[in-house]
Amino acid sequence: MIEATRKETVVRQRYAAGAKERAKNLCCPVDYDSEYLEVIPQEVIERDYGCGDPSRYLHEGETVLDLGSGTGKICFIAAQIVGRNGKVIGVDMTDEMLEVARRNAPVVGKRLGYANVEFRKARIQDLALDLEFLDRQLKESPITNAAPFLAADELAQELQVKNPLIASDSIDVVISNCVLNLVEPKSKRQLFDEIFRVLKKGGRAAISDIVSDEPVPEEMQNDAELWSGCISGALTEAGFLQAFEHAGFYGIQILKRDVQPWRTVQGIEFRSVTIEAFKGKQGECFERNQAVIYRGPFKEVLDDDNHRMERGKRYAVCDKTYNLYKKAPYREFFEFVVPIVDVPLTEARPFDCSRTALRHPKETKGQDYDVTTQANNKCCDGDSCS
Ligand SMILES: C[S@@+](CC[C@H](N)C(=O)[O-])C[C@H]1O[C@@H](n2cnc3c(N)ncnc32)[C@H](O)[C@@H]1O
Prior knowledge:
The protein has 386 residues and is an alpha/beta fold. It has helices spanning 7-20, 42-46, 73-82, 95-112, 131-140, 146-162, 185-198, 218-221, 224-228, 237-246, 319-325, 361-365, and strands at residues 63-67, 87-92, 117-121, 171-177, 199-212, 235-236, 250-257, 263-265, 268-278, 286-287, 291-294, 300-302, 308-310, 314-316, 334-337, 349-350, 357-358. The chain is built from twelve helices and 17 strands. Strands 1, 2, 3, 4, 5, 6, 7, 8 and 9 form a nine-stranded mixed beta sheet that branches. The protein has a four-stranded antiparallel beta sheet with strand order 15-11-14-17, with no helix packed on it. Residues 11, 15, 26, 48-50, 68-70, 73-74, 92-94, 97, 123-125, 177-179, 182-183, 230 line the site of S-adenosylmethionine.
């Protein structure tokens, strides 16, 4: 049994050991793309404690942050997908994991012909605090009584503000592989807020983790083995998605869900899922007479700003929503109605996004629109109309 406050220490100790020697029970089988494994040294490959492959959802040129990077496998795969124009930052709190990852980074860099990966030390629920800087300060003034403890606390707060380890709005994609469940309950909310903070507007999270099909009882959460083994810190399937929603993300979806549980404990199923969530719905709303039509197949949908739309109807949307819908993950579900007379953004009036309203076709065409045309030949297939 562990005290609620000791969970992080238990996790650190277990993964420090797992960095030195392969720990069998920490491994959930994952099919990585073998093409990317060729340049990765064996000790990294065998000390893999992931449960999914978020790197599959990355693109060339992106700046990626991997939370709980361990010995670096996902970072080294990501390095190849984002290529020499992209960048990968791995963050972990366990020195032994960082040591293996950092020792192998130049090996991978040499084999690739470019080096675009670095590893930093932080707790993923506090990505602003540079733990190595703090390590150095504490070596110079060790804590022997309350005064240096309070001074260190002050320094940490100052560092977070003046010199954050991961700056706000600096990352294209936050990825993580089987780590979020390990963060103690009282810090989980802060963890999701931190993911949101570091992402650029328009950025996204692609996260693989273990989730449960039922809430995990407290006595199971206090079992050190189950907690540090990526089991009992799991959020429920619904709770995991809600945590992203509460942090302000939109367009949240399950990309992959294992049908077979990884483990079942006391009847509760624990399985791997990979989810995606986007940042960027915050901001002002302006009226530019745009409209969207939900294509179906469902009778109606509700977005993360509470716009409820019925299939086939034309809805008034603000410029921000219109542009969000034009991109992933919404694009394929909507038709877009462009106003005939463009309203420049600089002249646009505020739009009340708190209500959902239909858009009369006259609003996008103009109230005086009375054009009559001949049949449009572009509608015909082949030569039959010519
Ligand atoms: C299950 S392993 C996964 C490692 C890696 N993502 C992989 O796929 O092999 C969990 C890793 O997360 C790190 N970790 C756990 N909790 C953390 C926290 N709160 N902050 C930073 N790192 C953490 C551990 O040190 C360990 O390296």
